[in-house]
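Hi everyone,

Forwarding the result from last night's run.
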Amino acid sequence: MTDTRQQDNTTYALVKRLVRESIRPYLAWIAFALVCMACVAGATAVSALLMKPVINDVFVARTESLLIPIALAVIATFAVKGIANYGQSVLMSFVGQRIITDTQHRLYAHLSTMELGFFHRIPTGNLISRFTIDINMMRAAVSNALTGIGKDLLTLIFLVGVMFQQDWVLASIAFIIFPIAVLPIARLGRRIRKVTVNTQEELGQFTTLLEQTFQGARVVKAYGMEDYEKNRVREIAERVFALIFKSARIRSMASPIMETLGGVAVALVIFYGGSRVINQSMDPGSFFAFITALLLAYEPMKRLANLNASLQEGLAGAQRLFVLLDMKPDIQEKPAAKPLVITRGGLEMEKVDFSYLPDQPAIDDISLSVPAGKVVALVGPSGAGKSTILNLIPRFYDVNAGRITIDGTDIRDVTFASLRGGIALVSQEITMFDDTVRANIAYGRPNASNDEIFAAAKHAAAHDFIMDMPDGYDTYVGERGTKVSGGQRQRLAIARAMLKDAPILLLDEATSALDTESGRHIQAALKELMKGRTTLVIAHRLSTVMDADLIHVIDKGKLLESGTHAELLAKNGIYARLYQLQFSDQQMAEQARLRAAGE
């Protein structure tokens, strides 16, 4: 994977990109929300203005005729405020949730283009935290920022207007103090973003650890490692606690700053304004309208002071998301890639080199042929590079040197969809999804008919055990297929490959987890399926590939021998030694079985 650009992580750059990529599609909704926010702000200002007639005309002048009009005005003001507040709240919730959903779609679509190695390098929990924690923090930042800029800022502007309309000297005294708070609060925001990034990294590790221990619960219990895993979880949880508590402390530091300055401002207003009321240079109604506006302005002002902290937390999430979105896969289609048309299905590897790590070749200058319509086996010790060869054919990884062709066409010149659409893979690592048996078999062909699914299951010796399940083909197999046995999972995977009916078959220990009887059924079904198709088989049990048209012997990433079973035995090389060793082991196992049976 590659990062296409040096990311600009300044607040301005992140906000600009967030607006451009996430907020712009919903500007119309936001405009309606801002109208509602303006109504809330206006109603708040009017409620402060109403204090003047309440004090002067009702309590001082005792004008009874104004009681009902003023009461109705108060009701109308608060009704408008409530309705407008509802409108802006619903609209902003819609926008915030749409941003979450759109970003999740976008992020998943982007990650689905990444090469297989990317998912081996990045822990799953780390990726999941991007979809949950980071995106939710980004949404909160957007909602809080827009609400703050809209409702709180407009409310503050309207209330400041009321204060200046009542007495500009008092208003100047009240607000000359608050700019002092801007610099320390801005510094707090920068500290919060740094702490938040670290917190999210730790939460990603926490999610990864939980996922690994839950999925590996069998191993944890088998080796008595419960206490060890408890300590690991406790350590990460404590680090997360420390970071979150630190963020809370930093965020809370804004409160004493604003409270102290707010108290000073109110005290000055009371001192100066009270003196003017006593000297009768200001009527009580104007003073109470002013002090009401000041007190009402205090809450939005405090929220605006905390807005930078919320914004920086969200930008920390956005920053981590943008890092992923800016990555480009190492393996990409060429701009002029064409669909692969498989006419015969012949495979060729020409002087192929490949390594997972620098200076540690997994495949070293291999050239081999898989003739069209033939069954070719790859054999050799564990770690020889056999599975790596299979992974190179569908371009899960790309060769470092050399090339792989299908019917003479370099696989790097064709589209992923056409290449992988012509290949069926059954791996020794069986992947089952938490869905029905029917859906798992039809995973490569979701529109397959029931008859086709049943036929594939029968050929894979799976139909009988499926029908014994509580809901037959509609039975859920559980997460990672935990509700079926290993052998059953393998037969379902073989049925999936059979249903795909691709011209090229890649079988990586496809019968390794099957008992003898099921293995015979599968071998017969596979032989039928292999007719007229190009098949590349990996097998550790040489007895399963003795009838292969061609056998390639791989060891330490190199091709050592090629030929039929008989030819390789005649060479008396590494294949012959592997065969003799396995044959000896099988004889010993058979003798042990006979002794146990008393024969």
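Residues 1-5, 588-597 have pLDDT under 50 and may be disordered.

Cheers,
N.
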